[in-house]
C-alpha cells in the first residue's frame, strides 16, 4: 500500500439531468473533502474558458450553429484538452470532482435522434480518457426537477430532449461500471450525506483499485 504522501487522488464524476443538483452537490462535496484534509479540485464540463469551450458556449447559447457530429467532437476535444492536467492532479494526490463528463457527452448528442449519431458512435471518442473511480448519477423525476425551476434559455433545455436524455442515461449506465445511482429528490443535506458515504467508500478502495484507469468501450 502507498504511503499517505504518495497516495493518488480519486476521480469523482457527478452526472444527471438539468437541475438534479449536480453543481450544488459538487460544491458541498468539495467542502466536505477539503475539511477532511484532502487536496481537492472542482472542475466542470464543458469548460467554457478554452478556445474550444468558447465555441461550445456560443453553440449552447444559440448564437452559433454546428453540425451534430462536429459539436459532439468538440465537447469530446474539450475533455481531451484537460485530460493531462486531470492525470497530473490525480497522480500528485489531488482528488478531482467533475461536474458532467463523457456520460453527458454521449447521451445529449445521441438524444438528438440524428440517424448517424447513435449512443455507440457517440461513445467512441471518449475511449482512452481518464476513467472515473466513481460516477454518481443524481437521479430525479421530471416532476421534481420541474419544481426546481422552469427551462432555461440554452439549447437542450426542453421537454423532448430531457425525456430522451433520461432514457439514454439509463441505457448507458446499464453498460458501464462504477456507477452509483443517488436519489436526488431528497433534501440537499440528505443527498450530500448519501454522496459522502459512496465517496468515502470509493476513496477507501483506491489502494486496491490501483493507478488511474482509462475509459474503455461500451459493454454490449
Ligand atoms: P444542476 O447543476 O444539476 O443543474 P443545481 O445544483 O444548479 O443543479 O440546482 C438547481 C436548482 O435546484 C438550484 O436552485 C438549487 O438550489 C436547487 N436544488 C438543488 N438540489 C436540491 C435539493 N436536493 N432540493 C431542493 N432544491 C435543490
Ligand atoms: N453537454 C455537456 C453536452 O451536450 N455534451 C457534453 O459533453 C457535456 C459535458 O451541455 F445541456 C450539454 C449538457 C447541458 C449543457 O450545461 C451544459 P451545464 O449547465 O453547463 O451543465
Ligand atoms: Mg449545474
From TrEMBL:
The entry's keywords: ATP-binding, Kinase, Nucleotide biosynthesis, Nucleotide-binding, Transferase
What GO cellular component entries does it have? cytosol; nucleus
- Return the InterPro entries for the record: P-loop_NTPase, Thymidylate_kin-like_dom, Thymidylate_kin_CS, Thymidylate_kinase
The record's Gene Ontology biological-process terms are: dTDP biosynthetic process; dTTP biosynthetic process; dUDP biosynthetic process
Respond yes or no to whether keyword Membrane is given for this record: no
Q: Which Gene3D superfamilies does the record match to this protein? A: P-loop containing nucleotide triphosphate hydrolases
Q: State its Enzyme Commission number(s).
A: 2.7.4.9
Q: Ranges for the Thymidylate kinase-like domain?
A: 14-195
Question: What HAMAP family does the entry give?
Answer: Thymidylate_kinase
Report the sequence similarity comment from the record.
Answer: Belongs to the thymidylate kinase family.
Its annotated pathway? Answer: Pyrimidine metabolism; dTTP biosynthesis
> What organism does the record attribute this protein to?
Penicillium angulare
Task: Give GO terms: molecular function aspect only.
Answer: ATP binding; dTMP kinase activity; nucleoside diphosphate kinase activity
- The name under which this protein is listed is Thymidylate kinase
Q: Does the UniProt entry include the keyword Metal-binding?
A: no
Amino acid at each position: 500500500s502507498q504511503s499517505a504522501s504518495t497516495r493518488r487522488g480519486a476521480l469523482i464524476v457527478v452526472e444527471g439531468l438539468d437541475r438534479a443538483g449536480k453543481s450544488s452537490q459538487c460544491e458541498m462535496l468539495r467542502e466536505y473533502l477539503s475539511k477532511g484534509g484532502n487536496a481537492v479540485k472542482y472542475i466542470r464540463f464543458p469548460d467554457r474558458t478554452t478556445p474550444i469551450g468558447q465555441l461550445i458556449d456560443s453553440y449552447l447559447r444559440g448564437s452559433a450553429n454546428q453540425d451534430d457530429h462536429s459539436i459532439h467532437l468538440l465537447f469530446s476535444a474539450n475533455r481531451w484538452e484537460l485530460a493531462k492536467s486531470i492525470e497530473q492532479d490525480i497522480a500528485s494526490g489531488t482528488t478531482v470532482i467533475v461536474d458532467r463528463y463523457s456520460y453527458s457527452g454521449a447521451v445529449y448528442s445521441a438524444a438528438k435522434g440524428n440517424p448517424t449519431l447513435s449512443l455507440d458512435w457517440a461513445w467512441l471518442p471518449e475511449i482512452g480518457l481518464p476513467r472515473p473511480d466513481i460516477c454518481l448519477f443524481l437521479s430525479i423525476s421530471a416532476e421534481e426537477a420541474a419544481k426546481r425551476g422552469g427551462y432555461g434559455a440554452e439549447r437542450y433545455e426542453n421537454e423532448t430532449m430531457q425525456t430522451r436524455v433520461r432514457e439514454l442515461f439509463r441505457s448507458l449506465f446499464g453498460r458501464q461500471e462504477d456507477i452509483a445511482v443517488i436519489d436526488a429528490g431528497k433534501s440537499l443535506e440528505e443527498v450530500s450525506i448519501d454522496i459522502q458515504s459512496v465517496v468515502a467508500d470509493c476513496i477507501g478502495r483506491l489502494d486496491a483499485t490501483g493507478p488511474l484507469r482509462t475509459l474503455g468501450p461500451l459493454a454490449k
